[in-house]
Amino acid sequence: MGKLADLAGEKFPKLSEAELKVVCSVGDGRLAEVDGGTIRADLVQFVLGRTGRLARVQVAAVGVRGAKIEGELKLTGLRVPSLLALENCTILGGIDASHAQLQSVSVTDCTVGRTSFEGTRIIGNLDLSRSQFEVREAGGSDRQTTNQGCLTSTMPTLTATFRWKRQG
After folding, report:
1. Quick one: pLDDT at residue 4?
2. Among 105, 6, 127, 22, which Cα is nearest to 70's?
3. Least confident interval from 4-8, 21-25, 42-46
4. Nearest Cα residue to 57 out of 65, 66, 47
5. CB–CB of 37/18 below 8 Å?
6. pTM, 2 dp
7. How does DSSP classify residue 86?
């Protein structure tokens, strides 16, 4: 195993086959083909956060295709210099990227629980194509939405208007 896999194995005993695919793919920026396997949200956060000894490990991108991501993906306040790409994943615990600074984010063809990008700064691209999100409206009621468009931005500050289709 490589250095990242060793560090992940220390923090997360008994890495699943799907989780090993993820940590082994990040150095060269490949999407990890998980094909229905389950990975822990904490593992994705650990790799993206790059703190402690992990800060010296080169992480080109964290990319996952076809996984069930277990738990809430908490990126709150993180500075993430790598691409985060999730494709055809289920993240029922949601994503909280409040007040994070992210390089580029692609969440396509995914089903995602409660999601917050409040105060988030995205430096590169944002792609939420064909994903379904549960969002909290002002006033506190929940609803499920489907993103009908795609936004790509390379501006230092991202301001966007999305077209959402109300589900039920």
Report:
1. 74
2. 22
3. 4-8
4. 47
5. yes
6. 0.78
7. E
